[in-house]
Amino acid sequence: MKGIRHGFFGRQGGTSEGIYESLNLGIGSDDKPKAVMRNRRRVADTIGVKEVDLLLSCHQIHSDRAILATMPWGKDRPQADGMVTDLPGIALCILTADCVPVLFADRKAGVIGACHAGWKGALGGICEATIAKMEEIGAHRKDIHAAIGPCIGQESYEVGPEFRDEFLKQAPWSGNLFHAGQGDRFHFNIETFVKNRLLQTKIAWVDVIGHDTCAMDEMYFSNRRRNHLGEPDYGRQGSVIMLEG
What we know:
Layout: E1 4-8, H1 33-47, E2 55-56, E3 66-68, E4 82-85, E5 91-96, E6 100-106, E7 111-117, H2 119-124, H3 126-136, E8 145-148, E9 158-159, H4 161-170, E10 178-180, E11 186-188, H5 190-200, E12 205-208, H6 223-229, E13 237-243
Parallel strand pairs: 2-5, 3-4, 8-12
Antiparallel strand pairs: 1-13, 4-7, 5-13, 6-7, 6-8, 9-11, 10-11
Family: Belongs to the purine nucleoside phosphorylase YfiH/LACC1 family.
GO molecular function, one term: S-methyl-5-thioadenosine phosphorylase activity
Organism: Henriciella mobilis
C-alpha cells in the first residue's frame, strides 16, 4: 500500500450555479444531475479515483449503521451513515451541510472509514459503529486516526430545551457543551461532542479542522444558513478518503 489520500472539500471549484454554487456533490439535492456528476468527477480526479463510480456516497439517514464498501453501487445507494473498506482505489465520500464528517484511517492495517454524524447519529453511536466495522476487517483502534471536518459551529447552532434534555438523558457528561442563548435557547457544540465520543473509544488520535460551515458562507454549504435565508434547497460538500493502490 502506497498510502492514504483524503480531503475535506468546500463549495468552491465546481460547475453548479445559483444556490448550489459551485462544487455541489449532493446527489439528493435538486441541482442539475449533470452538474453534480461533473462536480463529483472533479473531486474524483483530485483524489485520484480512476472511475467516478468508485467515489461512493451512501443514502445518509442519520443512523448508527456502518457498512463495508467493496464495489460501486451506482444509483442504488445503500442506506447508511458510515462506510469502511480495505480495498485500494475505492473512495469513501461523506456528504454534509452542517453535520459532522469524520474520516478514519488505520495505516498499519490498511483500513479506512468515513461517517456522517448529525446529532441523531452522533448521539446514537455512528462513530463507534464505524470503528467497530473497521475492526471487523482488521483495524485496531489503538492505531486508528480520525479527522473531524467542517461542521456547524457552536455560535451558529441554536437548539431548544427539548434537544438539550435528550442529550443530558443519554450523555449526562455533555452538559457543558450547551451555552445559554436568548430565552430558552441554547448553543450546542456538536463538534466537541463528536470529538469527546471519539476520544472515549481510545483510538490513537483525533484532529479537528474547526471550520463553522454556517458562518463561512463563501467556503461551505449550510442547511441552517439556507433556513435563515428561506432558500428552497442547499448543496452538499464532500469529505473523502481513499487507500492508494
